[in-house]
Amino acid sequence: MTFDEKKLRAFLAVVECGSLGRAALAVHMTQPALSRVIKEMELRFGLPLFERHSKGMVLSAAGESLVPHARLLLFEMEQALETLDALKGLRRGTVRLGAVAAVTRSIVPKAAAKLLKEAPALRIDMLEAPDGELVDALVSRRIDLMIAAELPPHEEVMPVAECRFDDVYTVFCSTSHPLTRHVDVDLDRVLAESWIMPKPGSTPRALFERLVRQSGRTLPVIAVETNSVGAQLSFVAKGRLLGWLPHPLIESELASGAVRLLTISELTLHRRFFVYRRRRGSLPAAARQMLQSLPLVRAEAALAAFAPPSPHL
After folding, report:
1. Which residues contact 85 (CB under 8 A, 6 or more apart)?
2. Angle at the Cα of 65 (from 63 to 70), degrees rounded to 5?
């Protein structure tokens, strides 16, 4: 079967939308036209790609098998066009970058400003999420690069380089919290307080719990659980809860006097950050350009591994 971009996009639109009606709007087709495209694909394959139900369409076994290949083909088509544009000196394309919150508030804005100054025709599609969601986005090709703290080995994701940036997790409280009236505040004292933390299973929560257990203490009362950084900052600044976040996320509140750091050595954690990509497939030209704008440790060696075939890139 000859795959063309229109058919692949039509197929994936139905996959993502779950119905012909919504998918037709997404790909700017009429519903009958989209239905014909899907039926043509099914006739050509000799297998049904979807199971039709009154409430929508669900992938069949054959459709499930086709999805990753369809995404890969579309992705490679897009990268081929972007590479040809780059060879013509147009320097167009989309940088699809994912990063954890501490990075999007620190090194990414500066790197993006540098990149867009050098290549104003580029566009940046930015995803901020916890590292687990970023890995999923990278594997499913929704992003091409991700920046996060050190990850355990992964069969589909590999580190490209280390960023010249680190941050520190530390305890913080409101400036009106009773603990601020004490000269010396130790680990036992802060663990006796109530806390606001990310939800169980998140990387920051796991890191925090590991530090507490390593100290030989029991975990504190977690009065509020939320993955929203803004909510964590607000609850701490306006109440008696203690929080635990990286410095880049609380700089504004520290500067305004809304919160104050509590230096507890057992709960102070330094983190290093790395750039990751998929193990398989080509790295888009736009992503390579983004790499050149990031502050990397041993940047020359990292970029040499992805040297483009032409100096115009």
Report:
1. 91, 92, 93
2. 80
Question: According to the CATH classification, is domain 168-271 in 3.40.50.740?
Answer: no
Domain 5-73 has CATH 3.40.50.720: no
Residues 96 and 137: beta-carbon distance below 8 Å = no
What are the residue ranges of helices labelled H in the chain?
5-17, 20-26, 31-45, 61-87, 101-104, 107-118, 131-139, 187-191, 203-214, 229-237, 247-256, 285-293, 299-304
Sorted by where each begins, the domain ranges of the chain are 5-73, 87-165+272-304, 168-271
100-156 pLDDT, tens digit per residue, is 988 998 999 999 999 999 888 889 999 999 888 999 999 988 999 999 998 889 999
Per-residue pLDDT tens digits for 53-86: 877 888 999 989 888 888 878 877 776 766 666 5
Tell me the pTM.
0.63
